[in-house]
Amino acid sequence: MSPQEIPYLSIREASTLIGLKKLSPVELVRAVLARIDRIEPKVHAFVTLRAEEALLAARAVEREITRKKYRGPLHGIPVGVKDTHYTKGIKTTAATPALADFVPSFDATVVERLRDAGAILLGKMNLPEFSFGGLTPGTYNPWDLSRTPGGSSGGSAAALAAGFLLGATGGDTTGSIRGPASYCGVVGLKPTFGLVSRYGITVISWSLDHVGPMTRTVEDNALMLNVLAGFDANDRSSVEVKVPNYAKALSRKVRGLRMGIPRPSLLEGVHDDVLRSFHEAVGVFKKLGVKIREIDIPFMREAEAAQRIIRISEASAYHETFLKNQPQRYGPSNVRRDVEAGSLITAAQYIRAQRVRGQILLELEKALEDLDVLLTPGESEPAGEPQRGKFNFKSYFNLTGLPGLALPSGFSVSPPGLPLGVQIVAGPFEEEMVYAVGHAYQSVTDWHTRRPPSESKGS
Fold first, then answer.
1. Catalytic member of 82, 124, 190, 394
2. pLDDT (tens digit, 9 = 90+) per residue, 180-204?
3. What DSSP character marks residue 378?
4. Annotation says 82 is catalytic
5. pLDDT tens for residues 66-89?
6. Which of 176, 182, 205, 316 is catalytic?
7. 215 within a domain of the structure (yes/no)
8. Per the residue annotation, which of 10, 15, 152, 456 is the catalytic one?
């Protein structure tokens, strides 16, 4: 295998080669760093790159594996984490001047779990200031350098698409894992609320924030979730549930499963190429023996309004100290404006939004009673195109807390060559189901194997 091929190995492939001693962690990290050195000046996915430290860690990991102290599939795998995730002794800036010099004294739980699994931290990934917004300023989509990778986990998605990492973490409050995954042609999971700890992660909204894995294949995503998931007493929203081996779910048969898809009226305004890709994906699932039924997704418009009120109210509470002590240290984004606006929302409005949320959950449970999964578009348009979709299929599942998996489903024709994605959703703590369905799709399609052109348009 040439050094140019190594950075696009899956976690499963790299782990197998490391176990067979056909690839060393040092070789893997060196190949990835060589690609970063060549391509990163165009993409700008990193806030902080720890090249020397990663090589030192790779040598240490190699010695461990030689001594047969193997920790599992992530042992020796280079990963990145969003720069909202606390990293002991390494700056965690959240891309804001307000935290430009902040060096945490401890790791976020998800970072600690990745380290314990033997993963090698290459660096911290770029995002919009404090994770606000659907764009990631300064980071460019590897498929077309004139376009956005999305946000807020845009650095993580761009790095995966560009071959800089084999796995990454993202944060998702309004769709910030699944949106960039769709725009960049990678896989991103927003887990069930409470499944993955948020301890040691910069807050947007306590009741809407989720943290999850981003990878290039569904199988790799399951391998990462095996490490990230599980109860954490330091996170008050963490839920004590039995954590299965998610990778084992990949062998589940999907024939006979019941899949709901949105009625055409809910897809109004969605880009023509996205609609084509979505309906082609539906056709693939029909061939796999999945039973398809059009459904109404209850209270989509009300859900968007409630989500916005809750998000900005809770963000304003988190930012109260920043606004009081260092308002001048916000960057040129609209974060300060937005959190100040959030402070004007009354307690009655916030409570009303939470009550609407409860009613939506009840209605959604009824809609899902005779279904196994939902399938929706991942984004309503290709990266950088106008957003004209009538509804946001991502933020709805932040509000309801259900797991959502975004995965590649094709490419646009006009404009040409941009990744498109679909989203698979299931009931609470049914990550095994979304992985089984997603893996079945990837087993008969090759969208996830495509790579950006070596010299992207717009470079």
1. 82
2. 999 999 999 999 999 999 999 999 9
3. S
4. yes
5. 998 999 999 999 999 999 999 999
6. 176
7. yes
8. 152
Identify whether 305 is part of a domain.
Answer: no
CB contact at 8 A, 68 and 98: no
Nearest to 154 by CA among 2, 143, 293: 143
Q: What local confidence, expressed as pLDDT, does residue 1 receive?
A: 80
Place of tokens 């890709």: 277
Per DSSP, the residues of 168-212 read EEEEESSSTTHHHHHHHT-EEEEPPTTSB--TTB--S-TTT-EEE
Secondary structure percentages of the chain, helix, strand, coil, to 5: 40, 15, 45
Of 18, 137, 34, which Cα lies nearest the Cα of 71? 18
Residue 277 lies inside a defined structural domain of this protein: yes
Round to whole Å and give the CA distance between 149 and 155: 8
What pLDDT band is residue 459 in, cutting at 50, 70 and 90?
Answer: very low
- pLDDT digits 0-9 by tens, 385-419: 999 999 999 999 999 999 999 999 999 999 999 99
357 is a domain residue: no
Q: How far apart are the first and last CA of the chain?
A: 28
Domain count, the chain: 1
Cβ atoms of 374 and 425 closer than 8 Å? yes
| Strand residues in 178-311 grouped as ranges (E) | 187-190, 210-215, 258-262, 291-295
Tokens of 160: 């995966």
State yes or no: pLDDT of 376 exceeds 60. yes
Query: Which residues lie closer than 8 Å to 393 by C-beta, 6 or more apart?
Result: 262, 376, 377, 378, 380, 423
Known catalytic residue: 152? yes
Sign of CA dihedral 212, 215, 221, 227: negative
Rounded distance, CA 130 to CA 127, Å?
8
Cβ neighbours of 339 (radius 10 Å) = 24
Range of the domain at 439: 6-298+365-449
Residue range 17-27: mean pLDDT, rounded = 96
Angstrom distance (rounded) from CA 415 to CA 183: 13
Three-class DSSP category at 304:
helix
* Cα dist from 454 to 39, 42, 79, 143, 145, whole Å: 9, 11, 22, 9, 11
Give the CATH number, domain containing residue 100: 3.90.1300.10
| Among 91, 172, 97, residue whose Cα is nearest residue 124 | 91
pTM score: 0.97
